[in-house]
Design a protein that fits this description.
Pyruvate-ferredoxin Oxidoreductase, domain 3, 32% helix
């Protein structure tokens, strides 16, 4: 089965390195929280930077509130695979309640990272859920409520993703946000930027 969404663009770099690393991202959330939108925005921003990118959801219909996954790949060279991401470099968790029912670290590469929306400390998270991977934490729910007025953290968590991974530049998100959110794009960018500043 082909991904529901597949985006790619021709890289504009005149001199690419002989070897380039493809970054694979898996986003965990619940139906209706915008996990798929997150991966689309990341892919569009990467394409604006002249990179190749894919974005697509897990297969099958998902009801609102049910656990969902969405995937993204970013590379300096053409991406030949179109299967879902089994061994991510980065896992982003939009909703901390997902940790109680899903092993978000499944398949995570040895040096991979978990980027988590939480108000808890790293020590608390490790003790409660046994996560041993490198982590980056931010209270995206609080930030989203402040700027957007709703606890929808998908765009907010992109700020944390960008800060922790540097896979794209935060400025590259402005145009995709404008196209996706129109007049409320500014509020989403402000939430994203605050999460970028606060991510530890």
């Amino acid at each position: 089965m082909q991904p529901v969404l597949f985006r790619t663009a021709k890289a504009i770099h005149l001199h690419q390195p002989k070897e380039s690393v493809m970054i694979e991202i898996r986003i965990h959330g619940r139906g209706g929280q915008g996990a798929v939108t997150s991966t689309e925005l990341v892919a569009l921003a990467a394409i604006q930077e002249g990179k190749y990118a894919q974005a697509f959801p897990s297969f099958g219909p998902e009801r609102r509130g049910a656990p969902v996954m969405a995937f993204a790949r970013i590379s300096e060279k053409p991406i030949l695979t179109r299967e879902k991401v089994y061994t991510p470099d980065i896992v982003v968790v939009l909703d901390p309640t997902i940790l109680k029912i899903v092993d978000v670290t499944a398949g995570l590469k040895k040096n991979g990272m978990v980027i988590l929306n939480t108000s808890k400390s790293e020590e608390e998270i490790r003790k409660t859920f046994g996560i041993k991977a490198k982590m980056a934490l931010v209270d995206a729910t609080e930030i989203a409520m402040k700027h957007i007025g709703r606890p929808i953290t998908n765009t907010t968590m992109l700020g944390a993703l960008i800060k922790a991974s540097r896979v794209i530049e935060i400025q590259s998100m402005e145009e995709p946000l404008k196209k996706r959110f129109g007049r409320i794009a500014g509020r989403n960018f402000d939430a994203m930027n605050e999460a970028y500043q606060q991510t530890a």
